[in-house]
Design a protein that fits this description.
The structure is a homodimer. Chain A has 20 helices and 20 strands. By secondary structure, the first copy, chain A, is α/β, with parallel strands linked by helices. In chain A, the strands form 5 sheets. In chain A, strands 15-16-17-12-10-18-19 form a 7-stranded mixed β-sheet, sandwiched between helices. The longest helix of chain A is centred in the first third of the chain and has 19 residues.
Chain lengths: 554, 554
């Protein structure tokens, strides 16, 4: 048995158990606390990050003779880190050469390596937090969680699914078929897991690790060398991941090139396309716009593409027994990372005749006012606002907010709020859209913008929200309702639209949140993505099985 | 618990155990014996078949006002059966309407229905044998096995995989996350299996049930209504299957239209295309030429297409310890159903300097002669030849044999052999091809034709056979070799080419044979198909999972 496998076996076993029970569990604590991560961990993480700035990033033996990089933090920092720039052919060649020995390693060996990589990434969580914060623009607490432990959870979850699928295939069997009259024929059969080929993971800027680790680790453990292609403005988190992976690979006697970094500059993009069109790239994981998703489907060399794409998430408010808590909950969901999550709500449907709030009836206007006040309370302290909202990843988003403000009634204006003027910030913009303005609110407006939409009634609101999800994609939906029958109908409507529904969330949990091992992230059943993190379908086609058989020599 | 589920639960459990052990097992005996199937079963099957001839086929409540059918048995019989002809829209509408209740049934209910359908199909195995024989042209013994019990095995195997995947997903969980300071947040979560939509199975003429049941039952148990689209010249076996399924569905209170028959006439084809392009068809299983496979990939509305396509299977002969038995084994593989199996060997590579046979060295010419003699012995009795070779499904094949005989040296000529002059028969044609004539032997020549190919040496033969498999697809490969090192190299080469390898088969088992629960049929790792019967990848994308969650009310 591989030493690394033995060392981490209990973690894998717990993960396997939890994907079955889907109860709460994590081996990677989400609290950025030195009690958990060791005294001095916080400072060491920050120092290690500062140490990387304005230098070439070290990836020993990595292809790419020239270096480049153009990462500017949405919080205002110029990272100035450069990475080896290798073309598609060089990357594919290196991956291919490294892949042979990796494919032949036993499942336990590969799993041991993957678990050790996750373990070391976990130990680097503070560093990864800074790397994530200064590429995605997330606030520190979120960058720590989403860039570190939560991403690691998703990686481990994918490993568990891949293990469960592969471990169910015996490596050999004795097959004896009775032929009548006491005769029989006996074969020995031998099965071997064969990887698909080179795997490509195309990451996004907002969640450089969280959205990448599932595909990255699933492909890797199935024996495929992996080329990680991060967003050119958010390379560092995956560069650190690749660095960590290569360290472990080398220690275990494998070529470091089993894991490669496809870095490129913002000004010279196109590497994702060249890699996707390379005939030796057999698997693609992609998070990003439906626009590029369509390009991949039309042009990639392989049909095996796992995606998370554009979507329009909705909230329907019909009734609540705690109006204040509901408004606070929704306000947090809207503000969190400035609505730049694939799970952020965008459309808030409210019956135009108002809602039931405990014993009271509240008008549509009162509900909107309640949401607004909750945002005020949440964001009145700029420091706190910065922590929650983070910064805006892309200057285009600010222009888009500006343009939207011309197209619809502004209920709550957006403004910069950061004390630090270098940070690109914008408080949540809230617009009002007519129920019939589907062309306006029926598409994804990425960033801190929501629409309050007066609906004819709850039923119409649910139908509209569900139909948007079905047609344009959605990853989350939320409902506030007290009536059991209406709730049943909503559950049915959103299920038919293939969207996960959160009902009556009030305290300490938000519609944006998706927990590994328990929440299947993305259903794969509407245009917001064709794959789920993680399930059997996510892993089972990343390997194939071949057999040889021969008569048993008696 | 559903009654039907309870009745067949032990069968499912045994199937689940066997896909793990991959040892021999079948609940559907392959012997066409009245000891197994009951006294008079044979005669009843034949009578039931004769009863169907020259009449409209009864499918109560099935869409399609007009009737048609043009099935002529390759053995010479005009079936004269007509089927309801419904267009793509009518079939999709009916399937969609029937699908709602089917999707909502519990997994146990659906599994119970599927297991009962298989059970009743098994009871109709003699009838299915006649139906298969007179549409595919198989001899009776093979038609019984491949059309009946072996197909049923494949159906059950797919059910087991689908069950294992779906049953691993809990329908609910309590999720409690510790929030520090003794606080926690608790959600109740509920998961539901959602089918993908309407499933289409496009069958082939040679194995109307065997190649269809895996996809048919996998889609069905995942909650998708299924439209079975058989080859227009081989409708009856699937018509009987659909009839049986509809009987069980109605008895269990479901609409019969959960399972539909897409019949068409030979003279007015095109229904497969209209159905594949229908936006509500969400899943396609297809067995047939790579040509139509390419069309599907380019034009079908859904990207979820599971295929078995064209391939070129090879045998490499290097050494054997029983020359007679080897020749007899290969001869049977070549003759069986006139080479019209996706697993039939086509190319026989023999080192031009000859082979080692026990203590003897045999020249290339002696090996070819040995194969020829074995074919003579096997087929000298026309009755026996008919049983083994069956008839030729398609007159084009005879023309192709004719044309091939002009292009290469004829080692063994093909000729009709049937006593019954109405049957379309052709004894195995054996040609010799030069090792360099890859354009000739490197493509699939469907029908009773093989090439003997003198190779520079064993190593070159293996490399050529493997490279053909990788490039043009192959489902089987066979090797005769005594040297362990050479054997190792062959195992590696064919594994890299994604083809299952049989070594030194001599008695009672043939390279063509693929046993459910043990042999993964098609690797999905070369162009001969993108899917495998059955594995996790075959079933896991036929359903998706949606959740709703809410705080636990304490």
């Amino acid at each position: 048995m591989s030493d690394l496998f033995k060392r981490h076996q209990s973690t894998l076993e717990q993960a396997l158990q939890t994907i079955g029970s889907r109860a709460f569990w994590t081996p990677y604590p989400e609290v950025p606390s030195e009690k958990v991560y060791g005294e001095g961990a916080r400072q060491r993480g920050e120092e290690a990050f500062n140490e990387l700035l304005h230098k070439p990033f070290v990836l020993a033996g990595h292809p790419g003779a020239t270096y480049g990089g153009e990462e500017y933090s949405p919080h205002g920092l110029n990272l100035g880190i450069t990475y080896p720039l290798a073309g598609a052919d060089a990357l594919v060649q290196a991956a291919y050469a490294a892949g042979t020995a990796w494919a032949k390693a036993s499942l336990q060996q590969r799993m041991g390596v993957c678990l050790e990589i996750l373990h070391r990434l976990n130990q680097r969580s503070f560093l990864l937090a800074h790397a994530t914060m200064h590429t995605s623009g997330q606030g520190f607490p979120m960058a720590f969680q989403a860039g570190g432990p939560h991403a690691q959870d998703r990686g481990l979850e994918a490993l568990a699914y891949a293990w469960r699928s592969m471990a169910a295939i015996p490596s050999e069997a004795a097959w004896t078929k009775p032929m009548g009259r006491g005769q029989s024929v006996s074969l020995e059969k031998h099965w071997r897991i064969m990887p698909r080929g080179i795997a490509l993971t195309i990451g996004c800027r907002t969640f450089p690790t969280w959205n990448t680790y599932s595909g990255f680790f699933a492909s890797l453990v199935c024996g495929n060398p992996v080329i990680a292609k991060p967003h050119p403005a958010a390379i560092l988190p995956m560069a650190l991941t690749v660095q960590t992976a290569r360290e472990v690979l080398v220690e275990q006697g494998f070529s470091p090139n089993v894991v490669l970094l496809a870095a490129e500059t913002v000004t010279e993009p196109g590497l994702a396309k060249s890699l996707a069109q390379h005939p030796q790239v057999a698997l693609i994981d992609y998070t990003g716009s439906a626009h590029f998703g369509d390009w991949l489907r039309a042009h990639a060399a392989t049909p095996l593409i796992y995606t998370e794409e554009t979507g329009v998430n909705s909230i329907v408010i019909s009734a609540t027994d705690d109006f204040q808590a509901m408004c606070a909950n929704i306000a947090f969901s809207l503000a969190l990372y400035s609505g730049q999550m694939c799970t952020s709500p965008q459309n808030i449907f409210i019956p135009r005749d108002g809602i039931q709030a405990g014993d009271q009836h509240l008008s549509y206007a009162q509900v909107v006012q309640g949401l607004n006040q909750a945002l005020d309370q949440l964001l009145d302290d700029p420091q706190r606002a910065s922590m929650i909202c983070g910064s805006i990843v892309n200057p285009d988003i600010l222009q888009h907010l500006e343009s939207l403000s011309q197209q619809a009634k502004v209920v709550r204006a957006s403004a910069p709020f950061a004390a630090d003027s270098k940070a690109r910030t914008a408080s949540p913009l809230m617009l009002e859209a007519d129920f019939e303005q589907v062309e306006l609110y029926g598409q994804e407006h990425f960033g801190p913008v929501s629409f309050v939409i007066p609906a004819p009634d709850t039923c119409a609101a649910i139908q509209r929200a569900a139909s948007l999800a079905k047609q344009h994609g959605a990853i989350t939906a939320a409902l506030y309702e007290q009536d059991p029958q209406q709730t049943e109908q909503a559950i049915e409507a959103f299920a038919q639209a293939g969207v996960n529904l959160s009902i009556n969330l009030l305290h300490g949990i938000y519609v944006n949140q998706s927990a590994a091992f328990s929440d299947f992230h993305v259903t794969g059943a509407n245009p917001a993505g064709n794959a789920c993190l993680s399930d059997d379908a996510f892993v089972a086609n990343r390997y194939r099985v071949v057999m040889w058989r021969r008569p048993v020599i008696s």
